[in-house]
Amino acid sequence: xxxxxxxxxxxxxxxxxxxxxxxxGGLVRGLLQAGKxxxxxxxxxxxxxxxxxxxxxxxxxxxxxxxxxxxxxxLVFLATKPHILPGVLEEIRPAVGSHHIVVSLVAGVTIQTxxxxxxxxxxxxxxxxxxxxxxxxxxMVFSRGSNAGDEEAALLKSLLSSCGLCEEVPESYIxxxxxxSGSGVAYVYLFAEALxxxxxxxxxxGALASRIAAQTLLGAAKMLLETGxxxxxxRGDVCTPGGTTIYALHQLEKGALRATVxxxxxxxTNRACDMAKD
Amino acid sequence: xxxxxxxxxxxxxxxxxxxxxxxxxxxxxxxxxxxxxxxxTVSGLRKMGVNFTVSNxxxxxxxxxxxxxxxxxIIPFILEEVGxxxxxxxxxxxxxxxxxxxxxxxxxxxxCPTPKVIRCMTNxxxxxxxxxxxYATGTHADVEDGKLLEQLMASVGFCTEVEEDLIxxxxxxSGSGPAYAFTxxxxxxxxxxxxxxxxRLAVRLGAQALLGAAKMLLESExxxxQLKDNVCSPGGATIHALHFLESGGFRSLLINAVEAxxxxxxxxxxxxxxxxxxxxxxxxxxxxxxxxxxxxxxxASSSKVSLFTKKSKQN
Lengths: 278, 315
Fold this sequence. Notes:
The structure holds two protein chains of two kinds.
Chain A: E1 15-18, H1 22-33, E2 42-45, H2 49-58, E3 61-63, H3 66-72, E4 75-78, H4 85-92, E5 101-104, H5 111-117, E6 123-128, E7 138-144, H6 150-160, E8 164-168, H7 172-182, H8 184-201, H9 206-227, H10 231-238, H11 244-254, H12 257-277
Parallel strand pairs in A: 1-2, 1-4, 2-3, 4-5, 5-6, 7-8
Antiparallel strand pairs in A: 6-7
Helix pairs in contact in A: 7-12, 8-9
Chain B: E1 3-6, H1 10-22, E2 30-33, H2 40-48, E3 51-53, H3 56-61, E4 65-68, H4 75-82, E5 91-94, H5 101-109, E6 116-121, E7 131-137, H6 143-154, E8 157-161, H7 167-175, H8 177-194, H9 199-219, H10 224-231, H11 237-247, H12 250-273, E9 276-277, H13 284-293, E10 305-306
Parallel strand pairs in B: 1-2, 1-4, 2-3, 4-5, 5-6, 7-8
Antiparallel strand pairs in B: 6-7, 9-10
Helix pairs in contact in B: 1-2, 7-12, 8-9
């Protein structure tokens, strides 16, 4: 039936987080940074104060009671650890109404599972962010459950675009996103570390090498995103005939870097699928 | 215009076949020579209507454009032999890998003050008029001489002028390139046969796939990486296969191959520059001929033959 039309204006939106860990913290910082939702409209729950202190410092409200978050919010983010979630859902289920929008950040928990453990009318969405949401340069994908419509998807997208790239996808892409970008951030850290080590070997101080390595990755990524050119073309543009770059690239090809990276994405994706089945 | 080939092997045959098929030259305007009349290409050339002779001197006399289509170690012998017959009108085109313009000009200058020399690197698909050719002009070759060669070679494929110092790289890439392609095609066909295709069909389809891909690339503005992506549907067959190629270091193998061929070409050039050639590199008939004409050369007692030293070597 028609429920009272709660204002979808972001400034009047009440947002809750069940779980206040690192990923939730990243999203809330993004929301606040973008000025979409005032801190006073945000409430988070966690079993201990350990994480909640930081939220209070941001101006958000905090509680140890998950039900309170659900009562006080329209948009509820579920940000617990996977093994905690079933218990939490059982706890909050009685308080979930048709006006709620429930967005799960919980890795490996499918929309099917969420819908099974929540009332049948619940609008459910599932999102997979990545760590750089914390600095508003995240990559997030989300999928909608059976009761979530265009309005809910649009709301989520508009709120979270402040944290980075936010795209709706079929649920089957979420595990792939984990392998590509969720875990992918770690691959980049590894690559940055190795770049810097190479420079240190050649005589550059470590701290400087690390900063330059990071800036190199940032700059290259920025060019990719802004020019829209194929990475192979951008790579070719850097390679002067017989120059330093092509010599280095040859080493990378000899090491089968491409295949190794493909293996990594595949392994993480498969692991995400396996874990979801548990 | 008449064209001559010193040497009647694969290269002479391929070029002659290409030129005649393209209609830029009538077969009877082509002469080819070789001391070895048993070569299979010799009968092929004859069947084409090309004038065949055992006398290199005759070839020179009846040509305007003279292709040196012999193996690199033989070049110095040839230049010594036909040098006296080279005139100002001749355009001497060397197709020998690793043989520099300056080494040719140096040899010929004892006979002719301003020899027109062009160095060229082509490849076997000239035979089907899909060759890849580059050329560099020597000190006394004019722009028109280069353009004339370019016209000839463009009739049998792609042809462009380059700086001489790039020719070794071209050798590694498109000179040897057809061999890489033949190897790939053989293996692709094996893959097809393994999965149940008859061999002939597998070869035909593999070749057509590479031909089509190459044509797409040549006609497209897009980067090969983009064209590759266009074939790879998410989670599909092709991307699975490509992963295997990457795991095997496919790209680096190809880079290694081009590099190895280029480096070897330079090595051979350095050997030639030092005028040190192993007898094994020279065919026996020619070696006998050398011994007959230059009794001062002692081959048996040294591991290397020294070519054209003015003083006789005593070992």
